[in-house]
Design goal:
Blueprint lengths: L8 H4 L4 H32 L29 H15 L11 H6 L3
Length: 112
Amino acid sequence: MTFEPPIPRDLWDQIPLAAQAVLAVALRGYQQRIDALERRVRELQEQLGQNSTNSSKPPSSDGPAVKRPRPSPGANGPRADRRATRDTLARCCPRTAPSTSAPPSAAAAGTP
């Protein structure tokens, strides 16, 4: 790996070789430290994005702003589906009281 000076090459070449060597070592050390800090920032950002829905954390550790997904229809069990079907039928096809008289077609024909 070659060292790329942080300033234009013509200015770098004006610096004495001993100073260039010291600066190169210092700059490599700073670059390693920057790389380590950038890795740590990425790790912390990943941790910050975790909550009970995408990790093994308990829901009590979530802040108040975490929105949990709503359960899908039928997630409450089979009775919820039956109840919804019964309500739908009641709205579109209301029950009529049982009649003791003859059906309407028979009444129209004049038969009791």
